[in-house]
């Protein structure tokens, strides 16, 4: 009798604890779903607002100047859509973090908290890359136009653009918190490789080819220098001629304007003083009294 009674008591306690767990879980799950639905609506609305604002400020034009549009040529999203999607999923992650927080401390909430704390750094890094791309493209165009008459102008323009790209990428990686672990070893490896190639080349078989190459480059630079000077002088002369050509027009605008009939009226008044109206010329002199 006692064993049967204990089994019935244990079963009843297990059933009551199960119902208690379900009663505690269901409200939390409902709160989880409500938070996710509200977060989804908020994410959709904010992503739409971000897309409209970026289109208003001309974000796509800035991206086109940076040359990133070519990278997204085969993508179905443009730069504005990508930023809007990033904002959308970021807000969903925040909503997911809040929703899992309903269940108390758990590994998923810890992971989501770390990701949400990292999101502002990622957004700033994206902005840094976009701005660096725009600056690099502008510098490339400027240097290419300034040195367009030289054979090595495009090479220098490309080197300047790549250098600015590198600075922007390194700054973005540092902003994301992975600069010290990735950029420094890569930079040291690249510099060590370049230094090793130079040392081995200079100490080995690259001495003669490099000497010939330098002589060729210096000769080309010396031959192109007079042409560059002549082009600059021609440009200066053109500006001076344009300035001189505009000076007579300015003087004509400053001179007082004389009416067309003013000269004729003056001449008519002067003629009236010596000649009577209706006469063709001065009349004969009257005889003097002594001749009578």
From TrEMBL:
Gene3D superfamilies: 1.10.287.1260. InterPro entries: MSC_TM_helix (IPR008910). The chain crosses the membrane at residues 29-54, 86-103, 115-139, 151-173, 185-207. Keywords: Membrane, Transmembrane, Transmembrane helix. The keyword Transmembrane applies. Residues 225-292 are annotated as: Disordered. Residues 237-254 have a biased composition (Basic and acidic residues). Residues 283-292 have a biased composition (Pro residues). This is Mechanosensitive ion channel.
